[in-house]
Amino acid sequence: MPRVNKTVRLAYETKLWIDELISKKELELREEINKGLIPKLEKHLFENSTDILNGVSCNVVLKVTSGSIIEQAYRNTRHYTNDEWKKVVRNMERSLKEVNMYKETTVTPRLYLDEDILTALESYQDEWRSKEPGKRLIKLSYVIKVVVFADYYNNFNKNI
User: Fold this and answer.
1) Phi first, then psi: what are they for 4, rounded to 5°?
2) For residue 158, what pLDDT is reported?
3) So what's the pLDDT on residue 21?
4) Which stretches of the chain score pLDDT less than 70?
5) 18 and 66 Cβ atoms separated by less than 8 Å
6) CA-to-CA distance for 154 and 160, rounded, in angstroms?
7) How far is CA 75 from CA 33, 35, 37, 44, 55, in A?
8) I want to staple 149 with a disulfide (CB 3.0 to 4.6 A). Which of 12, 79, 92, 104 is the partner?
């Protein structure tokens, strides 16, 4: 799974949703680490690559990032139909009225994403645009916003 760096300007609300998903995932990860996740992973790595890792010190570092949350959001929603995506957009637009835009700004994180997931997100740009002649592609930042909102909504509210 090759990974690529991509810089995308994200809307304020997208970053808020990502931050809440990061906090939730970090709590889940911390619980698993306390249950011995890292030694299990290191043992699994060594057992599956003994010839290469014999004599090598393995240090597993697990980090939740904006990119990993976007990947999670894509994986959790890739099975959605067009009707489900339309429902997500309606819910998102309704939810945006509740977001405090007083500090509205954008952020431009450098995302480290699985290349296949980035390609899939980019394919949504064409799939979701209106089929009217002369319509531009939807921005990748909007696609990410919708996908992240869908995962956020499922995690903190109810299923779409």
Assistant:
1) -135, 155
2) 65
3) 98
4) 100-104, 131-132, 158-160
5) yes
6) 7
7) 23, 25, 22, 24, 36
8) 92
- What pLDDT sits at residue 1? 72
CB 138 within 8 A of CB 124: yes
Residue type, 134: G
* Residue closest to 148 by CA, chosen among 91, 108, 83: 91
What tokens were used for 124?
């949504």
Is there a contact between 85 and 37 (Cβ–Cβ < 8 Å)? no
Q: Which residues contact 132 (CB under 8 A, 6 or more apart)?
A: none
Length of the chain: 160
Dig out the tokens for 120 from the structure: 């899939």
How deeply is 130 buried, as exposed, middle or buried, from its count of CB atoms within 10 A (0-12, 13-18, 19+)? exposed
Tokens 């249950």 correspond to 35
Three-state secondary-structure class, residue 15: helix
Determine the pLDDT at residue 101: 65
d(C-alpha 10, C-alpha 103), whole Å: 14
Residue 127 amino acid letter: E
**DSSP-assigned letter for residue 11:** E
Distance linking the first and last C-alpha atoms of the chain: 29
Residues paired with 3 in a beta bridge: 114
- Main-chain phi, psi angles of 133, to 5 degrees: -60, 140
| CA–CA dist 146, 91 (Å, integer) | 10
